[in-house]
# Entry
Amino acid sequence: MNTENDHHMNTPIGVIGLGAMGRGMAASLRRAGYAVHVCDVRPEAAQAFAAEGGVACASPADVARHCEVLVSVVVNAAQTEQVLFGEADGGGGAVAQMKPGSLFIMCSTVDPNWSVSLETRLAERGLLYLDAPISGGAAKAASGQMTMMTAGTPAAYAKAGGALDAMAAKVYKLGDKAGNGSKVKIINQLLAGVHIAAAAEAMALGLREGVAAEDIYEVITHSAGNSWMFENRMAHVLAGDYTPLSAVDIFVKDLGLVLDTARATKFPLPLSATAHQMFMQASTAGHAKEDDSAVIKIFPGITLPGAAPR
# Structure
């Protein structure tokens, strides 16, 4: 008997945003025995999850009517504002329906100062908040093996209960108030963006010099120059598949946040600035919505592997 599942059985929890990460997180919570209520800007995504055993809701407010713990997995701060406070016409926001003492778990990559201010704004309404950005990609989210970088009050952690461990293999607690979760995620995104840009540059040079893409990939992934990002993202280049698991514009945003954070204290980040310009170039060249590995398309005079026939 799975006593952990029995403990959570029928405990309602909401997941707002069923993209590459949110869909897997909702599935992990359902496997752990929670009654998972979901909504997404694409109603068909929520309906598909409901067909597998979840509950589809029409809006964040609808989710909040049923759940005292809400997990928001949207792209940025602006979308998080919409989740909580609704559209300009005042409709659909979760806050209006959240009961006092309810918890909002924010999993987006945002400006740490905005996250700090959101904790204060929600506390004024009697609501709890966890600053809880995530990392690991869609596969790890789906298997409950991702990383969460969290910060918040003891009351917020108590309200979350076992939900964090149901979604993530590693849950780092980085302070008793919001801010450090988002700061550490910003640092992670600095490395992720620079590593992808460097991996693309290395693969592009190899192709320019006439080395087969397969040979570059095989050797580097078994050598000291390898990185997780090279191994993961250059596999997309090898397959000629730029389906967006994480899009170019995500790193336009995230490296922009990295640079904004450093600029506030006049801290130099030369590699981050260069990588940001590379993603900006890829975005304006028409690759904004492609996988972030499409940053390799900014390099001239190379022939990239074509997509494998389906």
In short: The longest strand covers residues 146-152.
